[in-house]
Design a protein that fits this description.
9-stranded mixed beta sheet; 9 strands; 10 helices; alpha/beta; 259 residues
Length: 259
């Protein structure tokens, strides 16, 4: 059987400082065939210039340029353009291990029921690194919080079927909502038992900017509006601001006839 082409989707917004390191970590993968699509999302630094240099240097690299539209739009642009059957999003400042792709593809090819494959991760910056302690996957846990980072393998057809990443979700954690869409109605999930993903912590990261109470409130309202069927099934009602208490609180409200 012919090995499937993997398309690595790398959105880049003002990440010129890290882009070359990210691309080289992906190209160092033991797996082939691959293509790497850099989507320059209206960067105001020299990201596009570096991306073009990488495109000239490495035949696997393709550069797409778009006006600034956010990470979801950039990822969707990449997914739609991708020639590969399997997609791996990899942001423009993160890194992967050389064996991550090969091991993930093995699982996806051998087990058609698997929709999503990821690994163990580390958060790092110039000061050092720490293990990313992710909860084991279950749909109940996914309803309460996200345990799957963006640099995860999935089939292109599955992403297109659910409409890709939601471009109107501008309050952060758009990857969480994507996994809910992808997995709420079935599909197996595999976490590989090794460290394969390195998430770079930066002072300007979107994750930090969207950690405010207001953004959390907006995010809950958005998720409940779009996926109330999922939360009803898993949490017996809507997701609450104190997420870990959602099911207990909903059970109590239903018992009291207030929900």
């Amino acid at each position: 059987m012919k090995a499937p082409l993997v398309s690595i989707i790398t959105p880049c917004y003002n990440q010129a400082k890290y882009l070359r390191e990210t691309v080289k970590s992906a190209l160092a993968s033991s797996y082939r065939p691959i293509e790497l699509l850099i989507i320059n999302d209206g960067s105001t630094d020299n990201s596009l210039e570096i991306a073009r240099e990488l495109e000239q240097e490495f035949p696997e690299v393709v550069v797409l340029d778009q006006p600034n539209g956010g990470v979801s739009r950039a990822r969707n642009h990449g997914i739609k353009t991708a020639k590969g059957e399997i997609i791996l999003p990899l942001d423009g400042d993160d890194l992967i291990a050389p064996n991550y792709m090969e091991e993930a593809v093995k699982v996806m090819v051998a087990r058609p029921e698997v929709r999503v494959v990821y690994c163990q991760g580390i958060k790092f910056n110039e000061q050092g690194q720490k293990k990313w302690n992710l909860k084991p996957f279950s749909r109940y846990q996914l309803a309460r919080d996200n345990m799957i980072f963006p640099a995860t393998f999935f089939w292109k057809k599955d992403a297109l079927e659910v409409g890709g990443f939601s471009e109107d979700m501008t309050m952060g954690r758009e990857d969480w909502e994507f996994w809910i869409k992808m997995l709420k109605n079935g599909g197996e999930v595999v976490q590989l038992p090794f460290l394969g993903y390195f998430y770079r912590l930066t002072p300007t990261s979107k994750r930090k900017k969207t950690a405010t109470h207001q953004k959390k409130t907006e995010r809950l309202a958005y998720l409940n509006a779009k996926h109330i069927d999922f939360f009803e099934r898993e949490l017996n009602g809507p997701l609450r601001i104190q997420r870990t208490w959602s099911r207990s609180y909903n059970n109590l409200m239903k018992f009291l006839g207030k929900l």
